[in-house]
Amino acid sequence: MPKDTSIRSVLIIGSGPIIIGQACEFDYSGSQAALSLKEEGIEVSIINSNPATIMTDKIIADHVYLRPLTVDSIEQILIERKIDAVLPTMGGQTALNLCKEAEERGVWEKHGVRVIGVDVAAIEKTENREAFRQLMVDIGVGVAPSKIANSFLEGKEAAQEIGYPLVIRPSYTLGGSGGGFVHKKEEFDAALKRGLEASPTHEVLVEKAVLGWKEYELELLRDTNDNVIIICSIENFDPMGIHTGDSITVAPAMTLSDTCYQEMRNQAIKMMRAIGTFAGGCNVQFSVNPDNDDIIAIEINPRVSRSSALASKATGYPIAKIASKLAIGYNLDEIENQITKTTSAYFEPTLDYVIVKIPRWNFDKFKGANMELGLQMKSVGEVMAIGRSFIEALQKACQSLEIGRAGLGADGKHNRSIEEIMHGLEHPSWNRLFLIKDAMSMGVPLESIRKVTRIDKWFLAQIQELVQLETELKRYSLNNIPKEFFFTLKQKGFSDIQIAYLLGNVTEDEVYDRRKSLGIRRVYKMVDTCAAEFSAQTPYYYSTFEEENESIPTDKKKIIVLGSGPNRIGQGIEFDYSCVHGLLAAKESGFESIMINCNPETVSTDFNMADKLYFEPVFWEHVREIIELENPVGVIVQLGGQTALKMAEKLHENGIKIIGTSYNDMDVAEDRGRFSDLLKELEIPYPKYGVAENAEEAIVVANEVGYPVLVRPSYVLGGQGMSIVINDEDLEKAVVKLLGDLPGNRVLIDHFLDRAEETESDSICDGEDVHIVGLMEHIEPAGIHSGDSFAVLPPFSLSAKVMESMETYSKKIARALNVIGLLNIQFAVKDEKVYVIEANPRASRTVPFIAKAYDVPYINIAAKIMLGVNKLKDFTIERKLEGYAIKEPVFSYDKFPEVPKELGPEMKSTGESIRFIKDLEDPYFRKLYKDKSMYLSK
Predict the structure, then answer these.
(1) Where is the ATP-grasp domain (predicted)?
(2) How far apart are CA 914 and CA 266, in angstroms?
(3) More confidently predicted of 635 and 935
(4) Which end of the chain lies in a sparser environment, N or C, as judged by fewer CB atoms within 10 Å?
């Protein structure tokens, strides 16, 4: 069936700010869907309150509404834009809940709007635990024994009937919120109370816990002709008991028998057909008994999910793009495969490689958090790696995590306490994968590890092989490693730095030079969806060690953009937004744009965003070899946050051109000593400071600068490790902990300006002229991290003298640092005196917010200036903001109820929203301002 021509305008509902359980994978899906519908000549409107994402950029949709995600906001857009259809399946649980609420209020019927991509009835069937359970029973799909409970008494009766262990699953929640396991009777009351309170309908499912069973996911698509295809099978490395968002996952499934897989396919298709007649995407989760292959259904999500983004990047099959075309009437066989260009979207992808996803946690930001993983998702991001084998992909994923690991172990960061290791195996947390390797290295039998973790023996045997290879490697010196064995090590994912560590007294560069001399180099393989059965047209690559290289460099001038890696607190989706604009600016300026990144949730890793995508760790060895192959004009590090910036020194040392601000000038800003010397020279005020390498030196410095003092490590992002202390004893504890967590680092000690206001400026400099992008005033006082503060644009209470000082200092610093591109400066204002706290010559958290508020493409402008193709005088910049814009931080404290909610110098927010007010009499603003005044007067 061809496209439904009655659909001329579509509203896509976004997912709002990033929270744990609902991250930027939905912005990726929404962006892809919007572009897909625009291709069909459909007018696309988007509602989303998140300013940090590319989804709310004008390049994505015809009309972007940065409004609160409410039914009232949606109804205004329906009237204003004369919307024909709404697509709610791209915005996660937030969008589905809004769709259901609008249906209940009669909004869709009132305005003649169709819901596409899902049946509203399907949402009810899948979100209502009892309705889902009954439907599965009716269609003959196995489910765990369970009972619904709407009260404390019903819950107690259900527990008595089913028996322990149990799992509590609240209805209509996201990321497992409020759910949990109950192993014994004494734990039940508290768990039931928590679940009932978490559910908006005060309803929970009390279910038999199938702990230790294997967990799988299937990604499905269906068209209006009821054709269904399976895009991808995903296997959880971790058994049942850990939320899928917190599980290491592998695609395709590695330990699934063919008969079990076929049965799972049949059941998934049956489930999708049973929940409604919609055309679109679906995610189905199953559990399999490892003893007899019995299958039970866990849940079905009639929308794109976290796994859909992963499956899209894993296979190269653009699920959201195809799902949106199916939603407007196309059938699968009528849509072109975006990668081969010769087959249809009805071809199921085939993989001749292995994908591994590892979640990224930020427990360091939540002191006192319960770090044990369970039904409630706690990770803040994820990485994906591609390899020819599971173990190669696993090691590459470990290198991608940005936690200082060189792979799976063999890097000097192993745990040697058998008690801690065994406890960590039984009580899984962020490091269980590494502890499995440590246990094997210490001789713990594989079977003992399997019994404790219940992880499939096949996966454990793969990791054990690494231990055996390490033992063998230690028999050699660098110069006598046989070429075949060296080649095997690289095929198993060992990085040069791991090999150097295992050999001892050898550097990474020496290992690199030795393998180059042996002719052992990375080659690049194409992600083609069809295991090379058909030729592919899309330049989407991963590295491995084989003979044939499929990535053939062109003779065009190239720019490489380094991505920001996994999302984490302090470095979120705003940097991916910046990277996408960097790619677009490079293309528009006549360069071939090349992306290196490993985050499956983001738009920058979409196969058609860059001219060439390398889905690789942003890890020196990988970046170095891509640069050697492609020979770019230069590399952009300014847009990828701290991940990319950390690469600047290596690039500089190796003579590779950094596009924009030079390494030396960036280092002046990062090095507190050099930066303060510069401020002194420029006669710009700054808080007294000192640098210490141990606790004794720190006490001397603190007494010189005067308490209270702000203590922090150098070269970190998101306020990591920062604290404010008021005496020698607290200072000593803080410094000892900092140097324990970040060995080899120096500690910065600044006099803390108590009860000062904090302000920020963002600017663009072309080496001569400086344009002030925006001045912001924080609601919270100095001492609370800027990422956790409400920021108001433009300032609302600063005097003309203070704002003039901020602008003057910004321009002086930009020129003194020879900034080419972006500069963010944070100030403290006390008694009308402006002090500079820090300067960051890179993309910041706030530039996307300002760009959306003023409706100016600032990152694009900055990128073109960095590339040297434009000067500021080439641009006519017109701002459109009437009134004020407020950046609202959003937190995910519900995942860590045991953690104090007090804010401080270390960032804790996971995302942000934007809110517009007409004037300062707005009741919402008056409350914020009142709270601030109370804060400052304490």
Answers:
(1) 133-328, 676-867
(2) 44
(3) 635
(4) C
CA dist 245 and 20 (Å) reads 9
Asked if residues 168 and 206 have their Cβ atoms less than 8 Å apart, the reply is yes
Q: What CATH code would you report for 145-209?
A: 3.30.1490.20
Mean pLDDT of 467-487: 96
Buried b (16+ CB within 10 A) or exposed e, 480-513: ebeeeebbebbbbbbbbbbbbbbbeebebebbbe
Tell me, what DSSP letter sits at residue 921? T
What is the token pair recorded at 830?
Answer: 């006390």
Helix pair angle (496-503, 508-517), 10° resolution: 110
| DSSP code of residue 658 | B
Q: Is the pLDDT of residue 937 over 50?
A: no
**Residue position matching structure tokens 């007090």:** 902
Judge: domain 131-139+219-349, CATH 3.30.470.20: yes
Distance CA 839, CA 666 (A): 9
Q: What is the pLDDT of residues 194-204, one digit of tens each?
A: 888 888 888 88
Q: Which amino acid is at 173?
A: T
Q: How confident is the model at residue 753, as a pLDDT?
A: 86
pTM: 0.93
525: left (phi over 0), alpha (psi -120 to 50) or beta: beta
531 pLDDT above the threshold of 60: no
Instruction: Note whether 623 and 649 are within 8 A (CB).
Output: no
Tell me the three state secondary structure of residue 202.
coil
Nearest to 887 by CA among 858, 926, 917: 917
Planar angle of CA 580, 875, 872, nearest 5 degrees? 90
Secondary structure (3-state) at 63: strand
Strand partners, 524: 543
Taking 70 as the threshold, does the pLDDT of residue 536 lie above it? no
Q: What is the CA radius of gyration of the chain?
A: 27
- Any idea where the domains of the chain sit in the sequence? 9-116, 131-139+219-349, 145-209, 356-520, 543-659, 688-751, 755-931
- CATH 3.20.20.150 given to domain 543-659: no
Cα distances (angstroms) measured from residue 790 to each of 802, 883, 888: 19, 16, 5
Specify the pLDDT at position 719: 54
| Model confidence pLDDT, tens digit, residues 709-729 | 888 876 655 556 778 888 888
Backbone conformation region of residue 412, classed left if phi is above 0, alpha if psi is from -120 to 50, else beta: left
Cα gap 97→175, rounded to integer Å: 14
- pLDDT band at 930, cuts 50/70/90? confident
Residue 189 and residue 153: Cα distance in Å, rounded? 10
Cβ-based neighbour number of residue 339 at 10 Å: 25
Tokens of 465: 């092989």
Is-contact 842 645, C-beta < 8 A? yes
CATH code matching the domain that covers 688-751, chosen among 3.40.50.300, 3.40.50.720, 2.40.50.140, 3.30.1490.20: 3.30.1490.20
Per CATH, 145-209 and 688-751 having the same topology is answered: yes
- Tokens 């401020």, residue? 679
How far is residue 844 from each of residues 560, 572, 608, 702, 764, measured CA to CA in Å? 20, 10, 25, 30, 12
Tell me the HSE value of 492 on the side-chain side, using a 13 A CA sphere: 22
Going by their DSSP bridges, the two strands 592-597 and 612-615 should be labelled as parallel
Which structure tokens are listed for 73? 């906001």
User: Does the structural domain 9-116 have CATH classification 3.40.50.20?
Assistant: yes
- Yes or no: say if 819 and 841 are a contact pair by the CB < 8 Å rule: yes
Residues in the chain: 938
The C-alpha atoms of residue 271 and residue 299 are separated, in whole angstroms, by 10
Q: Which top CATH class is 755-931? A: alpha beta
| CATH for the stretch 356-520 | 1.10.1030.10
What separation in angstroms does the CA of 833 have from each of 732, 799, 802, 829? 31, 11, 7, 6
Calpha distance 148→131 (Å, rounded) = 10
